[in-house]
Specification:
By secondary structure, this protein is α/β, with parallel strands linked by helices. It has twelve helices and seven strands.
Length: 280
């Protein structure tokens, strides 16, 4: 399905995917898209079904151990993409808790081995196995629904993820459509332009050593602090992720050293790295 005016979404997804091909980085960047239903979250991710990614609508701890870890080790899998996160966590509490803890380890420290009564890796990974994670959630599922009696939001995943330290491992990216854009999308559909195929996007899958710049990276600090207020922590993880995204932008523009235009690109996308749902 063709997409209309969603460049910021495809730009951030592309940068996150490119982050897996930078030498001397700790781990690929992780991304959480947050928006209302029918906001092109899944469609924007679907244009990146490329080698080095694994896209699925549902996944379990057992699948991660039996399929994902071997793909990371043997096939160079860099990013796991789950278009609708709720499909993966609509389980009983114990199963959901185990899945989220496993993902938290996989995308940050990495997995060396597992040896529980129902999951074993049968080997020790050295260095630890790591993988980036791109997923999406609806704004209501993220924030919760408003309880009129208690006058507060309840039931959202944001608070729980923040408490267990998972949210700070993601770049949050929220957005909504302004009225004029909604009207253009309706016209787009009425003209059946949505039926046209969307050109697939790709990234550069060769590992590149990109030189950073401390002075330029310092200009990302204000954004790191602002994002950390949403996801928790001091912003150190976010700063590392933003610097990695700046390097990814340099690669996409055929450079091996971070420049001012890379910082400008990240700061521009920073308009949506929050829970404010700024217009796209």
């Amino acid at each position: 399905m063709a997409l209309l005016e969603v460049e910021p979404i495809t730009d951030i997804v592309k940068l996150v995917l490119q982050s897996a091909y930078i030498k001397h980085t700790e781990a690929p960047v992780n991304l959480l898209l947050i928006a209302k239903p029918e906001s092109a979250k899944t469609s924007a991710m679907s244009v990146f079904k490329i080698k080095g990614t694994y896209t699925t609508n549902n996944i379990t701890q057992a699948v991660i151990v039996s399929e994902i870890l071997p793909k990371i080790e043997r096939e160079g899998l860099k990013h796991l993409i789950i278009p609708d996160l709720l499909n993966a966590i609509k389980k009983d509490y114990r199963t959901k808790e185990g899945f989220l803890q496993l993902m938290k380890t996989l995308i940050e420290e990495g997995i060396t081995s597992l040896d529980t009564f129902h999951m074993r890796t049968h080997k020790v990974y050295d260095p630890p196995i790591k993988c980036g994670f791109i997923t999406a959630i609806t704004s209501e599922s993220y924030l919760g629904s408003y309880n009129q009696d208690k006058q507060r939001l309840e039931g959202g995943l944001r608070r729980y993820w923040k408490n267990i330290g998972l949210l700070s491992r993601f770049i949050p990216f929220s957005y909504e459509y302004e009225l004029s854009k909604i009207q253009r999308i309706f016209q787009f559909i009425q003209n059946e332009e949505h039926l046209k195929p969307t050109s697939k996007q790709t990234v550069k899958r060769k590992m590149v050593d990109v030189k950073g710049n401390p002075q330029l990276f310092q200009r990302l600090e204000i954004l790191s602090v602002r994002v950390s207020q949403e996801v928790g922590g001091y912003g150190f993880r976010i700063q590392r992720s933003l610097q990695t995204l700046a390097k990814a932008n340099a690669i996409l523009n055929d450079r091996t050293e971070v420049a001012q235009q890379d910082i400008d690109k990240i700061l521009e996308l920073g308009n949506w790295m929050n829970k404010r749902f700024n217009p796209l």
